[in-house]
Amino acid sequence: MPGAFITFEGIEGSGKSTQISRLLHYLSNSGIPATLTREPGGTPIGDQVRKVLLDPANKLLDPTAELLLYAASRAQHLREIIRPELDAGRVVLCDRFSDATLAYQGYGRGLSTDTIRELDRIVTAGLRPCLTILLDIDAETGVGRARGRNTAQGLDGEARFENEELAFHNRVRDGYLTLAKQDPGRIRIVDAGRTPDAIQEDIRRIVDEVLDKTI
């Protein structure tokens, strides 16, 4: 039985981690084998790369170097986690994937989206999610949430992106919305400005619809 690859995207503070964890619980209770993972990271090697990418001390990290570090982490992630779990027939839920690279390093940093797509094609060998949930929220609200969370949970050591100016996060959000317009069949926009229960209800409806056709 083939697996299904579902990704979650959104700017900082959009609620991805909360909603993807709730979806994992829902699928498990429904008897659907699922694996939760994230980018950057997901593997021991990827987690080391994650520390470099998210450390606010690395303010001088070059955008191209940043892009290549994400690609390296993704290549390892695909080899160790994503492809084996899909081959085993599981649903793989991934917190960020290729769309994040286009949104953050492309639209946010200003790198060539053509270059990013070509690099990603090499890294993924064309693997794409069957569904991407885009949790959309205005940048000011999302970043405010993220910064508050980091302070409350002692995550300031992973706040390099949260520390970016609001204009950067607006560009990232615009990038995500552009990608959704380009691929509306795969990328489904969910309003993340509502209650967690209302958001999860929409997500479950969309996921059930896709899984009925996939597995």
How would you describe this protein?
The structure is a single chain. The protein is built from eight helices and five strands; from the N terminus they run E-H-E-H-H-E-H-H-E-H-H-E-H. It has 215 residues and is of the alpha/beta class. The chain has one domain: Rossmann fold (3-Layer(aba) Sandwich). The protein has a five-stranded parallel β-sheet with strand order 2-3-1-4-5, sandwiched between helices. The protein is globular and about 45 Å long. The N and C termini lie close together (7 Å).
Query: How are the strands of the biggest sheet laid out side by side?
Result: 2-3-1-4-5
N-C termini distance: 7 Å
Number of helices: 8
What is the chain-wise order of helices and strands? EHEHHEHHEHHEH
Structural class: alpha/beta
- The stretches of 5 or more residues where confidence is low (pLDDT under 50) are none
User: What's the CATH class label?
Assistant: Alpha Beta
Structure, briefly:
The protein is of the alpha/beta class and 215 residues long. The protein has helices at residues 16-29, 44-54, 63-87, 98-108, 113-124, 139-153, 166-182, 196-214, and strands at 4-9, 34-38, 91-95, 131-136, 187-191. The protein starts with a strand and ends with a helix.
List strands and helices in order, with pairings.
Blueprint: E1 4-9, H1 16-29, E2 34-38, H2 44-54, H3 63-87, E3 91-95, H4 98-108, H5 113-124, E4 131-136, H6 139-153, H7 166-182, E5 187-191, H8 196-214
Parallel strand pairs: 1-3, 1-4, 2-3, 4-5
